[in-house]
Amino acid sequence: MNPNSPSPALVKTYLLGLQARIVAALEAVDGQSFIVDSWQRPEGGGGISRLIEEGNVFERGGVGFSHVTGRNLPPSAAANRPELAGRHWEAMGVSLVLHPRNPYAPTVHMNVRFFTAMAEGQEPVWWFGGGMDLTPYYAAVEDAQHFHRTCRDALAPFGDDLHPRFKKWCDDYFYLKHRQEPRGVGGIFFDDYNEQDFAHSFAMMQSVGDHFLPAYLPLLERRKDMPYGERERDFQAYRRGRYVEFNLVFDRGTLFGLQSGGRTESILMSLPPVVKWRYNWHPADGTPEAALYTDFLVHRDWTA
């Protein structure tokens, strides 16, 4: 392979394998199988959505693969790259969100993706994007540390600057401006990544995808069987509302999918099944619920 030539076929092979590996590992934890929903997109392309609902561990979880094409870039994709307007495009990726039933087990999101924009007689413009982030309800320092250290390890072979850069990008991106609070304890996030050459950039994206299970499964195993009651479930549902607000108001992937005529069920399978909102509610000082805000919904270096 020419390291400077993008190879969508290689990326697709990797992504399909990643989806299969992650689903197999999650099924082993839950004991229930994911349903498989293959779909086609009239405008071009399709995907495979793999979903679990009312499982033994996961109240809802989705691991989706998509490979879609289009004739013109939607506004969300061309907003920062006006020179790409009018190009036909190809996008593929694996995206997942897992909502465990146990309030002590954190919600997690991960995605890795590849995008190419093409025009007759011109070199293709391509980049990778992705990342992973953790959204706990009853948070633990050791969980945040393990997750962030694994993210750091995923990026370490590709330059010492990547982790602090992508960690800050994640902190800035997964931030609810109207609430003035982070969505969770963060992780890493990157977009428009095409540094050095295709081989280098692809290897970095693969490392992020490959480190998801080591980052998350130990936390899930540690928390999934902890005892809880209605108080914890109620707070979990309230905090899940923040997740919904971010995905529907700010998330670029959601906007891109809907604006490009994507499959609504697959795009919105990240939303939690049980959610609550309350008017002007705040947890009482000194409670475990208040600790989430004071100790964890703050930007800090969790790898130290």
Automatic annotation (TrEMBL):
EC number: 1.3.3.3
UniProt-annotated site: Important for dimerization, residues: H178
Subcellular location: Cytoplasm
Positions with a binding annotation for substrate: S95, N111, V112, R113, G261, G262, R263
Superkingdom, natural source: Bacteria
Keywords, comma-separated and alphabetical: Cytoplasm, Heme biosynthesis, Metal-binding, Oxidoreductase, Porphyrin biosynthesis
Region (Important for dimerization) location: 243-278
Cofactor: a divalent metal cation
Catalytic activity: coproporphyrinogen III + O2 + 2 H(+) = protoporphyrinogen IX + 2 CO2 + 2 H2O
Residues the entry annotates as binding a divalent metal cation: H99, H109, H148, H178
Coiled-coil ranges (or none): none
Record text on subunit structure and interactions: Homodimer.
Family classification: Belongs to the aerobic coproporphyrinogen-III oxidase family.
Function: Involved in the heme biosynthesis. Catalyzes the aerobic oxidative decarboxylation of propionate groups of rings A and B of coproporphyrinogen-III to yield the vinyl groups in protoporphyrinogen-IX.
Name of the protein this chain belongs to: Oxygen-dependent coproporphyrinogen-III oxidase
Source organism per UniProt: Noviherbaspirillum suwonense
The organism's taxonomic lineage, starting at the top: Bacteria, Pseudomonadati, Pseudomonadota, Betaproteobacteria, Burkholderiales
